């Protein structure tokens, strides 16, 4: 999806009556000021050398429909949300993946063709961290629960991120959660991008990495992590059931069929590998 979706919902009932902001598929691009010429982009050089907290972008026009989200559209949308909803009333933000633009590393290498794997990884991390930082700036009192989308990786779309990247992202997203949950989030997330954390005494949030179950995931490491994640999920659900806890499950790739490909082919096409 080349746009991002925002929902404000109230999950009613005795376990959870707080408002939750649900955001998915932002697909942010930092390359809008780079132009069409390869090999050189002064803005990219500037961003690589600046901390993401100090990133700034020119231009006062939102991206067009079907284009990746640019800085103006991102910040204008978040500002509008903050004006529309009482910022203090949004206690929880669930971000279900794809903060990064499609084929991010390919776009990066268009301007930096001789970039090392570390250069690519570092810039993808900084871009993801920038988007989370901007969301937090507009909703500073909200807890943020983030899961990976198929574009949120430093090793190619749908592939499991490198261990270094997982470690860095885990450390970053833990800062947007209460202090008592941060160590647990870091320890869990760096195993493969999935975790289970309390939202309150009666409700648990399980964040899944569904990329490793996808038919488009082709690396061997994803297969290993997928099986471990399924085993872990079964044990976690059994444990929470014994504690009489309710569960919210966050995932990027939905279960079931691919509606677009199924309608085109006339044959049921599923999003996840059959064995999962």
List keywords for this structure.
three-stranded mixed β-sheet, 8 helices, single chain, globular, alpha/beta, 276 residues, 13% strand
Protein described:
With 276 residues, the protein is of the alpha/beta class. It has eight helices and seven strands, in the order ββααβααβααββαβα. It has a four-stranded mixed sheet with strand order 1-2-3-4, with no helix packed on it. The protein has helices at residues 42-49, 71-84, 104-111, 117-138, 163-174, 179-189, 220-242, 259-265, and strands spanning 5-10, 19-24, 90-95, 143-146, 195-198, 203-207, 246-250. Residues 11-16 have low confidence and may be disordered. Helix 2 (71-84) runs parallel beside helix 4 (117-138) and helix 4 (117-138) packs parallel to helix 5.
Fold topology:
Layout lengths: L4 E6 L8 E6 L17 H8 L21 H14 L5 E6 L8 H8 L5 H22 L4 E4 L16 H12 L4 H11 L5 E4 L4 E5 L12 H23 L3 E5 L8 H7 L11
Parallel strand pairs: 2-3, 3-4, 6-7
Antiparallel strand pairs: 1-2, 5-6
Helix pairs in contact: 2-4, 4-5, 5-6
Order of helices and strands: EEHHEHHEHHEEHEH
Radius of gyration from CA coordinates: 19 Å
What form results from the Cα inertia axes? Answer: globular
* Tally of individual helices: 8
Major sheet, described briefly?
4 strands, mixed
Concise synopsis of the structure shown:
This protein has 8 helices and 7 strands.
């Amino acid at each position: 999806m080349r746009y991002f979706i925002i929902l404000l919902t109230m999950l009613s009932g005795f376990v959870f009556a707080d408002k939750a902001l649900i955001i998915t598929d932002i697909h942010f691009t930092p390359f809008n000021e780079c132009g069409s010429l390869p090999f050189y982009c002064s803005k990219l050089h500037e961003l690589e050398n600046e901390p993401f907290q100090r990133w700034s972008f020119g231009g006062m026009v939102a991206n067009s429909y079907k284009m990746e989200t640019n800085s103006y559209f991102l910040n204008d949308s978040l500002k509008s949300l903050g004006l529309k909803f009482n910022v203090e009333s949004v206690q929880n933000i669930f971000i279900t993946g794809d903060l990064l633009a499609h084929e991010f590393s390919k776009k990066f290498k268009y301007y930096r063709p001789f970039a090392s794997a570390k250069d690519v990884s570092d810039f993808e991390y900084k871009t993801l961290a920038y988007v989370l930082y901007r969301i937090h700036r507009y909703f500073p009192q909200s807890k943020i629960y983030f899961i990976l989308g198929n574009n949120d990786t430093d090793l190619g779309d749908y592939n499991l991120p490198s261990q270094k990247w997982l470690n860095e992202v885990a450390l970053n997203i833990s800062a947007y959660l209460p202090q008592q949950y941060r160590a647990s989030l870091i320890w869990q997330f760096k195993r493969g991008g999935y975790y289970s954390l309390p939202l309150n005494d009666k409700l648990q949030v399980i964040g899944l990495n569904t990329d490793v179950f996808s038919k488009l995931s082709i690396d061997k490491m994803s297969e290993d992590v997928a099986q471990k994640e399924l085993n872990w999920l079964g044990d976690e659900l059994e444990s929470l059931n014994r504690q009489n806890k309710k569960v919210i499950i966050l995932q990027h790739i939905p279960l079931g069929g691919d509606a677009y490909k199924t309608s085109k082919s006339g044959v049921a096409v599923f999003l996840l590998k059959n064995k999962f």
